[in-house]
Amino acid sequence: MDDNTDQNDATNADPTTESTDNLETTQAVSELELGNRNPSLWQDMRTSEDWWAIWCAGLLLIVGFIAVWMNAPDPPPPGSKEKVSVSSPLKPWLSKPSTWRENPLHAFYTPVEVVAQWEQEAAEAKKKANAEAAERWGEKSEPKEAAKPEATEPEAAKPEAAAEKSPPKPPKAVNTIYGTLGSFLVIGLLFAGAIHIRGQSARKFLTAFPVVFALATVAYVLSGQSVIKAYNLEYALWALLVGLIISNTIGTPKWLGPAVLTEFYIKTGLVLLGAEVLMSRLVALGLPGVFVAWVVTPIVLITTYIFGQKVLKMESRSLNMVIAADMSVCGVSAAIATAAACKAKKEELSLAIGLSLSFTVVMMVVLPMVIKFLDLSPTLGGAWLGGTIDATGAVAAAGATLGDEALEVASAVKMIQNILIGVTAFCVAVYWVTSVERDPSAPRPSAMEIWYRFPKFVIGFVVASIVFSILHAVLPLGPEMVSAMIKDSTKTIRSWLFCMAFVSIGLQTNFRELMPYFKGGKPMILYVCGQSLNLILTLAMAWLMFEVVFKDVVSP
């Protein structure tokens, strides 16, 4: 049985409001998927939400890469150290609201004089932050700084050095109006086509989609305010709040249901994320990063799940598993994949995501302070951040407060950890079919039964990671082209999809439905205990790998 079918069945079995019932009904796939028989592979690929997430993301990746490839310059001659700049022609047409301070309209258009003022202030702030970081770890940097003078003089005459000393480019006005409208059209038309082919009403989707997109835009504008951004209160939190306010006050209108496609948005976004998880990141840190990300994570996940079942006596196994995966792997992305594999209810997924976002905000502020207090090295501190903070964006923000080296290590560890999304979903699907839902008197489930349960969009995530890792490695301008595709097009679309998914989660969530899951405070206790174990084991493993066993592998 397809995992989406099981989730809808489980959800409809609960007492919900009329509005929520309508949302679930309008998101039901085909009658075949709602039946009691497993569809054929071809039928599944034509109608399943998981497969269509792959097709939609695949089309976006293909178009994005072709656009960059056709716009790429000729590669430099072999042995040349000339730097080649590659960009996507799609960049001006795909964007999000930008940062603003006093005037929210600056999120869509910022005059050149305002940009110049901000750039000057940002440069001064960065210079001050780097000076503080250098002063803090000056003793550790002095030996390496002392080794540089001999190479400094000849390097000064190189073209690269001259280029670095060239005057900075003049500031330009920031205009995200066309990019925001372009993102709206691309996502709206792509999903409308997919919905039509799946046998649902594209007209109803297109009627409701502008409202969902507008709410996502509001979330982006709120998160882009400079003070809010400084605290890294990201769009996910605001998108969730915007949806929750509507659903718990005036209620989510019935006609909005066809565009409230939480899983479709986020599954497509996760396949796009696969193209960003490159194997070169794994190679960059080597064994130390692998040990921190791949040894600690499964230990924490399994231990937390057992603790929830045996000690806390969690009533819902699926809630227990989603929280454990959310906290130990990589936050919301892992929660979505795991929820699909274990048929978690939408209320359970909302609860897990809410816990993750709340603790992410706290940890990204507190952990850097703890690292500075303990006087940990940038490498060790970055590895600790990357292995424990759930959201990739929050990892980058927290790492940046410790300097460029910590930022690089933290981001690399988190991306290595992200590779486990697919592995986790597969293992959870196998465990659920063979142990949790198995009737002791029934025959052992077949491999095909596991296949039907397995969230197929994870296949797209893995394939995208492999394909773009190969392109990154073998093409003459592979790193530049893949980076340009991600930065200028697919990452923007992925962010919009995630933002609309969080809005949709909020629109589908009612606090009255969540309250039973907070019984005895068990979800909170589970998350705190699991994250505490995660913090201890990750720090211990990072110290062992980066400071003892492979001390000189990653150098600044």
TrEMBL record:
GO CC terms on record?
plasma membrane
Q: Does the keyword Transmembrane apply?
A: yes
Report the subcellular localization. Answer: Cell membrane
Compositionally skewed regions (Low complexity) per UniProt: 7-17, 85-96
Q: Where is the composition biased (Polar residues)?
A: 18-29
> What is the membrane topology noted in the UniProt record heading this document?
Multi-pass membrane protein
Per its UniProt entry, which superkingdom is the organism in?
Bacteria
Q: Where is this region: Disordered?
A: 1-32, 76-96, 125-170
Q: What is its main location?
A: membrane
Q: Does the keyword Transport apply?
A: no
One protein family per Pfam: Cons_hypoth698
**Coiled-coil stretches:** none
Q: Which residues cross the membrane?
A: 51-70, 177-198, 205-223, 235-252, 264-284, 290-307, 319-339, 351-371, 383-403, 415-433, 454-475, 495-512, 524-546
Which intervals carry biased composition (Basic and acidic residues)? 125-167
Q: Which UniProt keywords apply?
A: Cell membrane, Membrane, Transmembrane, Transmembrane helix
Report the sequence similarity comment from the record.
Belongs to the UPF0324 family.
Name under which the protein is recorded? Sulfate exporter family transporter
- Source organism of the structure: Stieleria varia
